[in-house]
Specification:
By secondary structure, the chain is an alpha/beta fold. The chain has 6 helices and 5 strands. It has one domain: Nucleotidyltransferase, domain 5 (2-Layer Sandwich).
């Protein structure tokens, strides 16, 4: 089970019921933060892992978000060459989602920074998948100026041990 902490704007747009006191996430990547990502006519959602800042971009369509989040997470983890057992554990844990309000201002700042960069990549003609892979390589202060791909690999490998 994972907690998906949505901005008010996203929660209102997607008509999500936010829990006041959500349970703790049981997945390795922790809570996820989500915000709307609009680029021209494209309506997307950008999600970030609280622990590693791993981004996942998916369509904001009702049939995709939030119900198929795990599918997009799996694609990102495959692209990062995460070992199959760690990948499967994380994907299974992300299939049950509890929605909540955002709770970390620093993470909201990072989320907004990632939204800005994703918008630039997609505006240049890259697909959301390509933009997502660029974002995984972007160093960020909350993770000691490391990139989300490296921190994610390290965390998931440590969880296997």
């Amino acid at each position: 089970m994972m907690v998906l902490r949505c901005t008010q704007r996203l929660a209102k747009r997607c008509k999500l019921q936010l829990a006041e006191d959500p349970p703790a996430s049981t997945n390795t990547l922790g809570d996820w933060y989500a915000n709307a990502l609009n680029v021209g006519h494209q309506r997307l959602v950008l999600c970030l892992s609280e622990r590693t800042l791993l981004p996942v971009i998916l369509p904001a369509r009702k049939e995709e978000f939030p119900g198929r989040f795990f599918h997009y997470l799996e694609a990102v983890l495959i692209a990062l060459e995460i070992p199959p057992d760690a990948l499967a554990t994380e994907v299974v844990a992300s299939q049950e989602i509890e929605f909540a309000r955002t709770a970390n201002r620093e993470l909201l700042g990072s989320l907004n920074d990632f939204v800005y960069h994703a918008r630039v990549y997609i505006s240049r003609g890259e697909s959301p998948v390509e933009a997502n892979l660029h974002l995984t390589e972007m160093p960020s202060k909350p993770i000691a100026f490391e990139s989300p791909d490296r921190v994610t690999r390290r965390l998931l490998e440590a969880a296997r041990a």
